[in-house]
Fold this sequence. Notes:
By secondary structure, the protein is an alpha/beta fold. Helices cover 59% and strands 10% of the residues.
Amino acid sequence: MDSVLDLTKENIQQVVDASMQQIVVMTFWSQQSPESQQLVQMLTQIAAQGRFVFAKVNCDQEMEIANYFQIQSLPTTLVLKEGKPVDGFAGMQEAPQVEALLDQHLPKAWQVALNQAKVQLAEGDAEGALPLLKQAYQECQTAEVSLVYADALLATSEINQAKVLLEGIGLADQDAYYQSLKAKLSLALDAADTPEIRNLLEEVEQNPTDYVKLLSLAKALHAAKRDEEALERLYQVLKTDLQAEQGTIKQLYMEILTALGQGHSLANQYRRKLYT
């Protein structure tokens, strides 16, 4: 359902049904009332945040709906929850007052982002869910958010980040969902532990100054989404010699950072480490 719509006799039942799942704000207004038009414009802007459905009732055309809700003056705003008015106000209000009233009934911004992400994840769009989950996690680092975030990270092969999130889940929140994610993580880690990587690790451990082998190892780790391991091994060399192997160590390090992207937390962390 659209976040802003015109309420009519044809769609009123659909809107009332929608209020069983999310808050619906109904404003009764008239084109003859400048105050009404100002309020509608304000609520339209607030509704753009996606936290509620804003249903406008044009009383010049829908008097039956206004009479049903016993509206005495315009503009009047009602807050619907589970099909029933639970709050409201008559006349014009300033934006901070309106938002304070709505905040008593609306989900937090992180909850909206989390719910949207769950829908996208269920539809198979883990990439699209990640920005929403990152936003939700920044505002609320609870198990409720962390588990869904880890799920999306595993779906996009961001294994290390998912591992960190799952390690932070307390015993009280280690439910069936958590156990299924741990199983996914275990399978992902096994898949990322290839014979090629094991052989290269052994060779690099035996000869740490064999930078050709180190470069091959870092590339293999990056291909397996084990970027933190790759960056850490390259960083240990760059700490003492920025131009190691004619600058190819630093070049690969920067290429991995670029591949991770500007907003990636791991990329930001290792970019800072290099510059300091």
